[in-house]
Write a structure and sequence with these properties.
Largest sheet: 5 strands, mixed
CATH architecture: 4-Layer Sandwich
Shape: globular
Number of domains: 1
CATH superfamily: Metallo-dependent phosphatases
Order of helices and strands: EEEHEHEHEEHEEEHEEH
């Protein structure tokens, strides 16, 4: 059996550096203008979706893998939010997801709960109800023929640029194998995680764990340790699941990271005019 899945996560709608549909009218009837960061994210969000349509791709399932909204940002007293009311964040997130639904109207949605700091379970349920009769899961377990896929939002985070990021995903595979061996739980061949805002994939024989890219640029929290330490990977994830691969002892999934670049901020050049004058002389 072959099935394709489009995974979108960590939109962080409400954040000043998260996804926001253009011309959103908030609950006070104010039109929200997009910041340059939000405009960049939105343009690429639409480009990815339009690109899939142009290529004739049709997902069999769409999974929202958590953190669709940014929440109240209690620790920062709301600093960094462009939409403060949760109602606005939910409505704007729904508008963003309509763009996916409009392009793939016959494809079913499933939702996974994100980090409680950003979205409470009742908020995820309210958003999911717009797109599917199925309630959201903390962990969503999917069967495709003989292949089993597990979607969960959180995974261990590492800010280390080297192998520690991948080690967290390998740990998730090992935890899955231990649960199978010690508790006779089902063996999940494909583990999908989000939360960490970087794309990684770790495979071993017939198992793989992938952390998904996001739609939130650097905020003050992620940048405080250094401007180049936690640069997010931006985009979505496409899965092609084929359970016949298991018969050959292979991992039953092909994947494509639908990424777009994170632009480096411009440097200030207060000496440009002076340099131009020197060049003339």
């Amino acid at each position: 059996m072959k099935k394709s899945v489009l995974v979108v996560s960590d939109l962080h709608v409400g954040s000043s550096v998260g996804l926001l549909p253009p011309n959103y009218v908030d609950t006070n009837q104010n039109v929200q203008m997009l910041s340059p960061a939000q405009q960049y994210l939105w343009d690429n969000y639409i480009n990815i979706l339009d690109g899939l349509v142009a290529q004739g791709r049709q997902p069999d399932l769409i999974v929202g893998n958590g953190d669709m909204i940014d929440g109240r940002q209690r620790k920062n007293e709301g600093i960094g939010l462009t939409l403060l009311p949760l109602e606005d964040q939910m409505n704007a997130a729904a508008n963003a997801l309509y763009e996916i639904q409009n392009r793939f109207p016959n494809t079913s949605f499933r939702f996974v709960e994100g980090t409680p700091y950003h979205e409470a379970p009742e908020q995820v349920r309210a958003l999911a109800k717009i797109f599917t009769p199925f309630p959201p899961h903390m962990t969503y377990r999917l069967q495709v023929g003989k292949a089993f896929v597990q979607f969960h939002h959180e995974v261990g985070f590492s800010s280390t640029i080297t192998g520690a990021k991948s080690a967290q995903l390998e740990k998730a595979i090992n935890e899955n194998l231990i649960a199978t061996a010690l508790h006779d739980w089902r063996d999940y061949h494909i583990l999908i995680r989000s939360h960490v805002h970087y794309f990684r994939a770790v495979a071993m024989k017939n198992h793989i764990c992938i952390s998904t890219p996001c739609f939130q640029m650097q905020n003050r929290y992620s940048t405080k340790a250094g401007p180049a330490r936690n640069i997010p990977d931006l985009g979505m994830l496409w899965l092609e699941i084929d359970d016949s691969m298991l018969e050959r002892g292979m991992c039953p999934v092909g994947y494509e990271e639908l990424l777009f670049p994170y632009p480096e901020p411009e440097a200030d050049n207060p000496f440009a005019e002076e340099a131009a004058d020197e060049a003339v002389v």
